[in-house]
Structures are given as C-alpha cells and as structure tokens.
Specification:
There is one protein chain. The chain is 21% helix and 25% strand. It is of the alpha+beta class. The strands form 3 sheets. A 5-stranded antiparallel sheet has the order 6-3-4-5-7. A 4-stranded mixed sheet has the order 10-9-8-11, covered by helices on one side. α6 (187-190) links the parallel β9 (172-176) and β10 (194-196). The chain is globular.
C-alpha cells in the first residue's frame, strides 16, 4: 500500500515522503479500514513540524488521527456485521506511529464509528477532532438556552460544528470571523443568527473576565 511518512520533523515539503509499505493485518479486536479520506488537523501539522510532541519518539510516523473509509477486514472476535461498513475514524495516530495518511489502517474497533450513506467520506474525515472539540467547548458552557455566545473563528472547522451545536441547544449565537469579508464562508449552512465580519481585536472582549474562547452571557 502507499503511505505518507516522515522520519524527521520540519516543513511538509522537506520531510514527507510517499512510500510503499505492507498492507497491515488486524489483530484480535481490531478492524482494517481502507481509507478514502485522511483528515489533517493543526495537531498533526504541529507534530510533523516539530512544535508539538504528540508524535513521540517513533523513528517513522504515518501522520493524521482523523479519517474515513470502509472496513475491509476483521480481527478475531469482531462482529461480522461490521464487514463493509462505512466508518469515520478517531485517534488513528494517538500514541502510536500509524495514522490515516495511508491506503489502509488497522485500529481497535472502538475507534471507528458508522458513517451514514448520505454523508460523504470527505465530510466523515472532518468529524473526529473538530466535532469532539466543538462538543467539549459547548458542553463546558452548561445550558445555553436563550443565551448569547461569541464564537471566534466561526468559519473554521471547529467553529462550523459549534454553530450547529449552538442551534441545537437553542442558543442565541453571535459569530465573530477573523477573515476578509470578500472570502466566501459556510455561514448559510449553519443557521447563524448574527455574523460579525470585521477583524477581532482585544477590545472586542472588553467586559469579559478570564476569556477562554467560550464565554456565555444572558
């Protein structure tokens, strides 16, 4: 199979290589997924660049924790009904050197989640870290019913999911986007109530204390 790897850290163009590797076999309790899309997150980029330590001391790393594809082989003890199942993947390269930037990945069955037929693999590969981060941020605010929430960077992947979770939580949501107004964004997908398109400054947070990226107000 083809896989992207790096054996030293630095800029992608300098350290990433595509190589041929043996197709992995699932152990007991594992599944093998034929990867359709591999999701790239800031943590993956920082690890490869050498500004974060998540990749550990492994001599060779196939990066990326998120992805989506189809289960094509089962390890011993895994439910036979999962064969051929469309799935999205989380923590593919967490605390190990084998991530989703390859044609196949094996991982515990607990790290794959069914993907509905009407959701593309491309979307599936964007679910894990962005949506889990968004869910943690929203749940950390407690009840949001009728509250107003400021979402810096709402045009990003995490912000995109946060806006949908806020809508489900029946919050009144203000969105603050740090981008040029001329740039197209996904705001018409999200059911956003309000949108601020000017660049954020420190003064935009005046009156809030201990700003932590999610502040909830009546």
């Amino acid at each position: 199979m083809r896989a992207a790897i790096y054996t030293s850290k630095g800029p992608a163009a300098e350290v990433l290589r595509v190589v041929d590797k043996p197709v992995p076999e699932p152990a007991a309790g594992e599944v093998r997924v034929r990867v359709a899309f591999s999701g790239v997150n800031p943590s993956d980029v920082k690890s490869r660049a050498g500004v974060a330590s998540r990749a550990g001391g492994f001599p060779e790393v196939t990066p990326h924790s998120d992805g989506a594809g189809t289960i094509d082989k089962l390890g011993a003890g895994v439910d036979a009904g999962l064969m051929g199942r469309r799935v999205w993947i989380f923590n593919g390269q967490w605390e190990r050197p084998y991530g989703t930037a390859a044609e196949y990945i094996v991982l515990p069955v607990s790290q794959v989640v069914s993907l509905a037929d009407d959701i593309s693999f491309e979307v599936g590969a964007s679910i894990a870290i962005p949506l889990m981060t968004a869910m943690h941020a929203v749940q950390s605010c407690g009840s949001l019913l009728g509250k107003t929430v400021l979402v810096p960077g709402a045009a990003g992947s995490v912000g995109f999911y946060i806006t949908q979770l806020l809508s489900a939580a029946r919050a009144r949501d203000w969105h603050c986007e740090q981008r040029r107004q001329s740039q197209a964004g996904p705001e018409h997908w999200c059911g956003r109530h309000h949108q601020l398109q000017n660049r954020v400054t420190d003064r935009s947070c005046a009156g809030t204390d201990e700003w932590r990226g999610c502040r909830c107000h009546h």
